[in-house]
Amino acid sequence: MTARELDAAGIHDPLLRTAYARCRQLNARNGKTYFLATRLLTPSQRPAVHALYGFARWADDIVDGTDPASAPQQPGERLDDLDAALRDALHSRVSTHPVIAALADTATRYRIATRHFTDFMRSMRMDLHVTDYPTFEDLRGYMHGSAAVIGLQVLPVLGTVVPRAQAAPHAASLGLAFQLTNFLRDVGEDLDRGRIYLPQDRLAALGVDRELLNWCRRTGRTDRRVRTALRDLSATTRGIYRHAADGIPMLHPVSRPCVQTAFTLYRAILDEIEAADFAIIHRRTAVPRRRRAAVALRGLAGIGVHRARHVLRPGPATMPSTPATHGPEPRLRVPT
C-alpha cells in the first residue's frame, strides 16, 4: 500500500497502515484482474477494496489448504479460528491480525453490514464438505455468500448516485457473473480438488456427469455433451452480466472506469472460453496480455475527466443513502 493511498484514505495509525499494506500484497499476488482494475480507483478507495478482497482471498486459501500459516491445523479448524476472530473484530473493531484489522476498519468506515461477512463465512464452510450442487438453486445459495456479498461489501466504497438499495442487486449480479466465469474457466482444476461448481440437474439433462467430466480432464478431449452443457451455462452467465451492466451507471462517476474495466476483463474470459468452443477442461483459459492492456488503457482514458468533474470523499457520507435508511438489500434473483 503506498503512503499516498493511505494518506488519501485518512489511515494514519501505523499498525493499520501495515495491515492495509498486507491486504494489498494478497490482492496483487493472487488477483491479477482485480488488482489491475483497482488501479483505476481513486487512491482513497483502494485500501478498502484491498482489505475486502485480501480477506476473501485469505479465507479461500484456508479452504483450499494453500495458506502456509494453516499447515499445523486442518482447514476446518483454521476456518473456525478465522470466523471467531472475525466476529470479535467486527464487534470490537480491533484485531491483532493485520488482514482482519484492515477488514474491521473498512467495515466501520463504510458501515458495511455484518451479515455480508456472516454469509461469506457460511459459504466458505460449505467448501469444506460440499463437492457438488444438485440444482442451480443450490448453487445460487452458495454463490450468494461466496460472490454476491462481495459485490455488496464493495458497493459502499464505490459510492452510488442512486439509493444503495437500488444498485445492490446489480452489484450482487456482478459478483455472481465473475464467479460463474471462474467456475467455467476452472472446471478442470476444481475437478482435481474433487469439486464441481456446475449444477448437476443442468448437466444431467444433457447427459453429463462427474465421470464424463473426469474423462475429459484425463484425456484432453471434450465430449459434445460437455460442450453443450458448458455453452448453456455460458449463456446463463451472459444474462447475469447483462443485469450487472445496468448497475454501472448507478455508481459514483469516479468508480465507473474501474468497474467497467473489471467487467470487460472478466467477460473477456468468457469470450475466450467460447472462442475455444468450450474445450477448456484440460487447460486453463486466459485473456491475452495485450488484450488486458488495451482494456486497462481504455479505463485510464476515462479517469481524468471523471475525477476533474466529480469528487468522492472517503467514508459512508459519499452515499445518498444506506441500508439503514432504506431497509436491507434485496436478495438477487439470478436469471436461468
Concise synopsis of the structure shown:
The protein is mostly helical and 336 residues long. 67% of the residues lie in helices and 0% in strands.
Provide an overview of this structure.
There is one protein chain. With 336 residues, the protein is mostly helical. It folds into two domains: 1-67 and 75-129, Farnesyl Diphosphate Synthase, CATH 1.10.600; 132-253 and 266-286, Farnesyl Diphosphate Synthase (Orthogonal Bundle), CATH 1.10.600. The chain has helices at residues 3-8, 14-30, 32-38, 46-64, 75-92, 98-110, 114-126, 136-158, 164-185, 187-192, 200-204, 210-219, 224-245, 256-275, 289-309, 323-326. α2 (14-30) packs across α6, α7 runs antiparallel to α8 (136-158) and α14 runs antiparallel to α15 (289-309). The radius of gyration is 20 Å and the shape is globular.
Helix and strand topology:
Layout lengths: L2 H6 L5 H17 L1 H7 L7 H19 L10 H18 L5 H13 L3 H13 L9 H23 L5 H22 L1 H6 L7 H5 L5 H10 L4 H22 L10 H20 L13 H21 L13 H4 L10
Helix pairs in contact: 2-3, 2-4, 2-6, 3-14, 4-5, 4-6, 4-7, 4-8, 5-6, 5-7, 7-8, 8-9, 9-13, 9-14, 13-14, 14-15
